[in-house]
Write a structure and sequence with these properties.
Layout (H helix, E strand, L loop, with lengths): L1 H6 L2 H22 L30 H20 L10 E10 H4 L1 E9 L8 E9 L6 E8 L24 E2 L2 E2 L13 H6 L3 E6 H4 L11 H7 L13 H16 L5 E11 L1 H12 L5 E5 L17 H7 L22 H6 L5 E7 L7 H10 L1 H6 L21 E6 L7 H14 L6
Helix pairs in contact: 8-9
The structure holds alpha-D-glucopyranuronic acid.
The site of alpha-D-glucopyranuronic acid has 8 residues, from α10.
């Protein structure tokens, strides 16, 4: 064979490659599966049972759930999102700005720097708060990460423009400027939230870690690794979603110190990749009383086993930094996953979870999101609560469910007023004011 190759004239070899390469490239493109949108091709699957321990024994009582929850959490940490390191220093807080006359006097605005690793000058998260004025008791709050910087959620000129790296839609060469102020206001109806008696706390996810493959070196994972507290590359080390979720928990650390906020009445909300983040934050941190996933899709509320829209392989390929190294084992191998999205939702039980889809957001697999919410039901039943009421998806723009909520809205991948109206109603029902 070797001697045969030697006899090949370079010109012949060149002509051979010219012919063979395009075919090879075409083949490899054909091997990258196109997204499936055909219900008859979603595949057969069996979901792992959230109420069955890995050793086959069954969860029969609520107290068994404590152990099973710990087991499932560990599986998600090891196989899906990666573990945030334990034992990091507690963050410190600095209120850098406060004004009780925001929103024409309706709200108090605060801007707080959270020094994530306690050290002033180290990695930081800038939290923006609007808190309703004139309440008799501390306010319940919604908290969520935003995509473009705090200055993009409002036109309020007092909100600092982020100095963190931003993606091209929010700035030039990674740097944000005044042009992006207010770009995301439609996703953050602050006045509506304030009028309903809730505070809003939001922070830019890019403060925690910039969202690109390799961004970890410029974010919290890099800072922690350089202190020797975690190996960024072990297969179960935290991915970016875990880092963002960890940041949300640090923001709640601040909320617990703010006398104007009731830290026992906090709902975490997130859209899309930040919906995956909200679900993972809520799963781990029991201080979130309500957990809201808006169009979170693959790796969030959508069942991985249903092959519809985005798949495990596709997400791990496009966004290799979001999940941990071990998660790559499940590329085109979802049946081997010891967990699925219904268990991610159930990890928050008996706390309340709301899952929202959008009709045109097929990439996120609305039916897969509905089914995951539905199949979290048995865990809620253990607590005497009812999961989603029906086997069938509800009609568009109709909210269903009490302890677990769901709707599918008309329109595309977005978070809109209709979604917020449902979240506010859900929070009213599930974060009641307590006499204390
Ligand atoms: C991409 C990605 C999704 C993600 C979405 C977003 O579409 O494939 O998984 O949810 O981005 O975050 O907007």
């Amino acid at each position: 064979m070797h001697s045969g190759m030697k006899r090949l004239h370079p010109l012949v070899l060149f002509l051979f490659l010219c012919q063979a390469l395009p075919a090879f490239l075409q083949d490899s493109c054909a091997a990258a599966p196109q997204a499936n949108y055909d219900e008859s091709k979603t595949g057969e699957y069996t979901l792992p049972d959230p109420l069955k321990f890995s050793d086959g024994s069954l969860v029969k009582k609520r107290k068994d759930w404590v152990r099973r929850r710990a087991e499932i959490l560990d599986l998600f940490r090891c196989e899906v999102f990666g573990r945030a390191p334990a034992g990091l220093p507690k963050p410190t807080f600095e209120v850098t700005e406060s004004d009780s006359r925001a929103l024409d006097g309706k709200a108090t605005r605060k801007q707080v720097t959270i020094w994530l690793l306690a050290t002033n000058g180290g990695p930081k998260l800038d939290l923006l708060l609007y808190i309703p004025n004139g309440l008799k008791r501390p306010a319940p709050a919604f908290i969520g990460l935003n995509f473009g910087g705090n200055h993009t959620v409002t036109k309020d000129p007092a909100v600092h423009v982020t100095k963190s790296y931003v993606r091209s839609q929010f700035g030039k060469n990674g740097v944000a400027n005044e042009e992006s102020r207010g770009l995301q206001t439609s996703r953050w109806p602050i006045e509506k939230i304030i009028d309903r008696g809730y505070a809003l706390a939001t922070a830019y996810y890019g403060d925690i870690e910039p969202d690109y493959d390799g961004g970890w070196t410029n974010g919290i994972r890099g800072a922690v690794a350089s202190q020797g507290a975690a190996t960024a590359f072990s297969p179960d080390a935290w991915g970016a979603i875990s880092a963002w979720a960890w940041g949300l928990s640090r923001a709640v650390d601040y909320l617990q110190t703010d006398p104007q906020i009731d830290p026992r009445r906090v709902a975490v909300v997130g859209h899309s990749r930040l919906g995956k983040t909200a679900l993972w934050a809520g799963a781990q941190d029991e201080r979130f009383g309500v957990v809201i996933s808006n169009n979170s899709g693959e790796g969030g509320a959508a069942l991985a086993r249903r092959l519809y829209g985005e798949t495990t392989q596709r997400i791990n390929t496009s966004f290799p930094h979001w999940f941990c190294g071990n998660y790559k084992k499940y590329n085109a191998n979802e049946a081997a996953l010891p967990v699925d999205a219904h268990m991610l939702i159930a990890l928050s039980a008996p706390r309340r979870v709301y899952v929202a889809s959008a009709e045109e957001d097929r990439w996120a697999d609305p039916k897969g999101e509905f089914l995951a919410a539905k199949h979290a039901g048995p865990v809620y039943r253990l607590f005497g609560l009812r999961g989603l009421p029906s086997e069938e998806m509800p009609p568009v723009n109709k909210s269903v469910g009490k302890a677990v909520g769901y709707h599918i809205r008309t329109g595309g991948h977005d978070i809109r007023d209709f979604d917020w109206d449902q979240y506010l109603d859900f929070a009213d029902r599930n974060l009641p004011a307590r006499k204390s």
